[in-house]
Description:
Elements: E1 3-10, E2 13-20, H1 26-48, H2 76-79, E3 86-88, H3 90-93, E4 100-103, E5 106-109, E6 113-116, E7 119-122, H4 127-130, H5 155-160, H6 172-188, E8 191-195
Parallel strand pairs: 3-8
Antiparallel strand pairs: 1-2, 4-5, 6-7, 7-8
Amino acid sequence: xxxxxxxxxxxxxxxxxxxxxxxxxxxxxxxxxxxxxxxxxxxxxxxxxxxxxxxxxxxxxxxxxxxxxxxxxxxxxxxxxxxxxxxxxxxxxxxxxxxxxxxxxxxxxxxxxxxxxxxxxxxxxxxxxxxxxxxxxxxxxxxxxxxxxxxxxxxxxxxxxxxxxxxxxxxxxxxxxxxxxxxxxxxxxxxxxxxxxxxxxxxxx
Length: 205
């Protein structure tokens, strides 16, 4: 930073009155950059469970994902006679979004699933994200493939775009983002089945 030093007299002594011109210097820009990187790391850790890496860990496609230990599917499937992988209808899928149900042992919560391009993931292990009060509850119990064209910070479009599974009209760039999210989910959650779409409503390949 440039400084304008003025020599003045006070009580018979000389001193310097330094005035700063208010422009950013190198140190200031370094501080801003560090703050942005730190904030991005915190968001990535909270949302995705791991830190961003220059090696290419990204949910947007084209990158390498860190190896993680995936949780097992919810016990519900075995206890209720499901043979995995299971072929779901859209109506059946809608039953699995963490809703309450009652069995012989009392009140319980159903598994939580979501589908991307016809592949069904069991996300029961992350209720803080996908449970009844989770920020991503909209995506559960359905195939919301068209919303996976958006990035992690594009909340406005993701929450204001109605869910739909047919993405056959997507551009290559949009499909790449959907594939990126699909790859991310395969590293984090078990696959429990696929969706049998109506004949005229097939997911993109």
